[in-house]
Amino acid sequence: MPGSATATTDGASDVIDSLDVTSLPSSSDSELRNKWRRLVLNVRGTSFETDIEKRHSRKNFEKAIELALTNPDSMSISTEPVSRRHDMTTHVRSHFDNLLNSTEWGAEFKHPRPNVEYLLKACELAYLYDSVYRFSRETIIRPELDGLEDSRFVELPSSLNRWMGEVDLVWLILADTLAPEDPLEEFIDRLYEERDEFITEAKIREIFLPIRSDAVDDPVEIKEKIESRLSRNAHVSPKLVHDYCFTRVVADSE
């Protein structure tokens, strides 16, 4: 999942081709600083949106590229596959570690006793997301002026945008960043029921590749190990959860 990057359904090349900046002036350093800081605040604001169209709006991405194109001496644009920037095994396991081993994550599914079913469903949703996310392209717009932070945008496939965006929302709720509008169990159940449709569409687009593990046990045995650790409030190995998700996906595809 994109973490601090902002999701969009537009690629950088599409946005650049659609913009005509030839008549737009460049900005002074002070103007650019103010414009960029306002943009960063707007981008952060979208992270609290629960409406997928607003979360994945092209507006901020377009404005960021426009600023970069009109100020080429002060800003740069680079685009590369997510899988080149991230080791996907480490990336997906970090999600599992956060949810299962951090006291700040998923409290509603841990007290008074662990709700293993929903914790693992959430992990599997994240795993499926990242099995497609690995094919996405990430655009980094980087100001060269001191004191200004980069802005990152990740292109999600338009046909999978809604499902992936809602999985993002589930994890933001689990991280206690957003408040749920509906019961979280119902939200997770609906996305879980839709996972086969998501996988089928991703396979048609040839952008689905499960993140492999070297698991040898079947998912039932792995789940029992996870449940035992959670019931004892013991550390759950992220690799064990990765093994579970990988074997579940493989079993479902056979």
Structure description:
It is a single chain. With 254 residues, this protein is an alpha+beta fold. Helix content is 55%, strand content 9%. The chain has twelve helices and four strands. The chain has a four-stranded mixed beta sheet with strand order 1-4-3-2. β3 and β4 form a beta hairpin. α2 packs antiparallel against α4 and α6 packs antiparallel against α7. The mean pLDDT is 90.
Structural descriptors:
four-stranded mixed sheet; single chain; alpha+beta; 254 residues; 12 helices
Helix and strand layout, with pairings?
Blueprint: E1 6-8, H1 12-18, H2 29-46, H3 52-55, H4 59-70, E2 75-81, H5 82-85, H6 88-101, H7 116-133, E3 137-143, E4 151-155, H8 161-174, H9 184-193, H10 195-204, H11 219-231, H12 238-253
Helix pairs in contact: 2-4, 6-7, 6-12, 7-8, 7-9, 7-12, 8-9, 11-12
